[in-house]
Each structure stands twice: as C-alpha cells, then as structure tokens.
Specification:
Layout lengths: L1 E7 L5 H14 L12 E6 L15 H13 L3 E6 L6 H8 L1 H8 L2 E4 L3 E5 L8 E5 H5 L2 E11 L3 E3 L13 H8 L3 H15 L3 E11 L7 E11 L2 H12 L7 H8 L9 E4 L24 H6 L1 H4 L2 E4 L8 H5 L5 E4 L2 E4 L9 H5 L5 E4 L2 H8 L2
Parallel strand pairs: 1-11, 2-3, 2-7, 3-4, 7-9
Antiparallel strand pairs: 1-10, 5-6, 7-8, 9-10, 12-15, 13-14
The structure holds iron/sulfur cluster (SF4) (2 copies).
One iron/sulfur cluster binds next to helix 13.
Length: 373
C-alpha cells in the first residue's frame, strides 16, 4: 500500500518544525533511505513570488532549513532553487526568507536561468521538457511544496510545485499549448514522471484558501505531510483541505494512467492523520469537476469556467499584460483591459496580480447550471 505521512505541526517554531520533519522522515524509513553521502540534492520549494512569508504564498523558510539540515546530517549536499512566476530567484528568495536560510545553513541557492533538455519518451502529453539546468546537476530532487488552492488546477501541492523547474516565460508557452485543463494536467503528470523526485513534502502548517495560489487567505491546517508518491501525497492533501481530490485535474489524469492509488488505497499514518479542514474554493470559482465529466468541461471550457475581470483596484502595474500567454491583455488609460476573444482562462493574470485586482466571474451558462444542479 502507498504510504503518506501526516504529522501534526501547529507553528513554524524551529523546534516544532524540526520534530515534525523528523517524524515524517522516520515514518518513511529515515532520511538515509533517500539520501546517501555526497548525493547532490535539489530542494525545490514553492517560491511563486518574493512576498512576505506571512502571506503564505511560498513554502515557509523554516521547512527549508529543517530539510537542509536533514540532508546534511547524512552527508548529502543540498542546494535550493526555483523559477518564480515574476522576478528573479534571488529577489524572491530574499523577500520570502529562503535566501537567509540558505546562507545560514550553507546551502547554495541556484537561479534557474539556464536550461537543459530532458526527454521523457513515455509521456502521454509531453515527451520533452526544457528544465532548469540545476536539475541535471542534481542526483536527487525533493519537492517541498505549499498547500494551496489554485484557480486553474483546483489545488496545488507537490506535483504542481514542479512546474517551477520550467524556466521563466517558458511557463506561458505551456499555457498556450495546453489550454484545456485536462491537457495542462496531463503535462504536469508527465513532468512529475520525468523529474521523479525521491520525496514530496507539503507545508500545510498554514496553507492558503480562496483566491490561491497568490491572492488567497492564510488558512491553518497544522500539518506537514509527505511520501514517495506525489500523486498520493496530493490526494491526501486535498482530503485534508476538504476537497474531493480524485476529481481534481492532475489527480484525475494520474488515476487514468494508473500512476496514483485511489484515496482509499493509501495508508495514511502519523500524528496528524485524522486532521481535516474546510478550505474555501478560489473566489467565484466553484469547481464543476464533482459533477460534470471532464470531456464536457474541456469542450465548453470557456462557457463553463469563470471569466477573469479587472476590478477598480487595478494599480496599472502591467504585470498581467506582460505575463498573459495569448497576449489578451492591453493597458488602456491606466487600466488592464482583457480581450475575451483571446482569453484562454488560464488565470495567470489572477495568479500574479500584486493588487488582487483580478476577480473570477461565473458566466451565464455556469450560473444556470449551478442553479439547476
Ligand atoms: S490587474 Fe493587477 S497585474 Fe494587471 S495591471 Fe492591474 S494591478 Fe497589475
Ligand atoms: S486574460 Fe488572464 S485568464 Fe485570460 S488568457 Fe490572459 S492571463 Fe489567462
């Protein structure tokens, strides 16, 4: 049976985090099961954007510290890296406190600028990725993610976190090539299979609910969870968040391909195994995945998914226009304006807006369907 460990951790105090990390690793056989002396280990936190750690957008630095220490304890050589959605790795890491942790613990912080081709011939959606070169320099990868809601994928945890191995604006190209949610989710499944992290750990001490992954509200779940199978870890994460994980796009694809166990087939162990919460969905976006088949959602994606709308609080920073994959946003008279004929409903604008000025509005068909559900 696939095992996922959930440990109780109700604060980011150094001692609490260290002991939760130790419990988690010990339940999986100990860190030496995963890391051998001189292994180069890439720790991949979620550094979506350089914002204050209290906003819970990024993996908390105390977890990065605890994991670096564990890797070093058995003679491994840890380094840390990510490609944030905006700004440089260095700036993002400095702002969210991960840079300081790396400096204090003697782990190198790597910027993901250069790329290397990684082939995955078994891929059902993507057979070749251009990933950060740091990936090819590592013997092993650990995904150290954040428990959050996600406008496009429903939830983001250990598997979605790996999208940060795609360098900079290449991410937008994937949104353009894979407009359907199931297609994009299939790419994430292939990415996880190509990268093959040895371990997935999710920071659910305080996660994010609502308008995630950038503009939501911190929500305490009081857990740290992890395991070897990222799909299983994310299914348990969804369960803790109060979502039906198996219908989320990534989980659905992984189940279809036989890469994920069903939730009832997962052995959940650890001091936090019974903890369950209710995370609010992204604002105005009540997922239809629970009651409509995926092909129907795919076919009517634009009618059945919420429309992004720019609110008056737009500060005209231009970030959404710069990052919109199909260039559907123009800055007009100091406000972002969306061309809905071009919009592919990827929600990158909502994800990256620093002013929380992009709301998701349900269209008429979606409202009618929900009313008559
Ligand atoms: S909507 Fe947000 S990201 Fe876009 S210009 Fe306005 S403030 Fe900036
Ligand atoms: S307007 Fe927003 S949701 Fe639409 S394509 Fe651009 S970034 Fe994606």
């Amino acid at each position: 049976m696939t095992k996922v460990v959930v440990t109780k951790a109700d604060a980011y105090d150094e001692q609490v985090v260290e002991s939760a990390m130790l419990e988690l690793l010990n339940e999986l056989g100990g860190i030496s099961e995963f890391i051998k002396p001189n292994d180069k280990v890439l720790i991949k936190p979620n550094m979506l954007e350089g914002v204050d750690q209290e906003l819970m957008v990024t993996t908390h630095p105390s977890l990065v510290r605890a994991l670096i220490r564990q890797v070093q304890k058995v003679g491994g050589i840890p380094f840390v890296g990510d490609s944030p959605g905006v700004s440089s790795t260095l700036k993002a890491a400095e702002k969210c406190g991960i840079l300081q942790v790396c400096q204090q613990e003697g782990a190198e912080l790597l910027s993901f600028n250069e790329k290397v081709d990684v082939f995955y011939p078994e891929g059902t959606t993507v057979k070749k990725f251009s990933l950060a070169k740091a990936y090819s320099q590592a013997d092993k990868v650990i995904s150290l993610a954040k428990m959050k809601t996600h406008s496009f994928m429903g939830v983001t945890g250990g598997v979605k976190n790996l999208f940060g191995l795609i360098v900079g604006t290449d991410k937008a190209q994937f949104h353009l090539r894979m407009k359907k949610r199931s297609h994009f989710a299939g790419m994430l499944v292939d990415l996880a299979q190509a990268v093959k992290p040895i371990l997935y750990i999710v920071d659910g001490i305080v996660g994010m609910e609502g308008n995630g992954p950038r503009n939501g509200t911190p929500k305490k779940a009081g857990v740290l969870l992890g395991g070897r199978n990222g799909f299983a870890v994310d299914l348990v994460m969804s369960e803790i968040m109060g979502c039906r994980g198996e219908v989320m796009p990534v989980a659905a694809q992984a189940l279809l391909l036989g890469l994920s166990p069903r939730i009832k087939e997962i052995e959940i162990v650890g001091s936090g195994k019974d903890i369950r919460c209710e995370f609010a969905n992204p604002r105005n976006l009540e997922t239809l995945d629970n009651w409509l088949p995926a092909p129907i959602i795919d076919f009517f994606q634009n009618q059945l998914t919420a429309k992004p709308r720019i609110k008056d609080q737009c500060i005209a920073c231009g970030r959404c226009a710069a990052h919109c994959p199909p260039e559907a946003i123009q800055m007009v008279s100091n406000k972002a304006v969306i061309d809905y004929k071009k919009c592919i409903r990827c929600y990158c604008c909502q994800e990256l807006c620093p002013a929380d000025a992009v709301e998701l509005k349900n269209g008429l068909l979606l409202r009618l369907l929900k009313k008559n559900r």
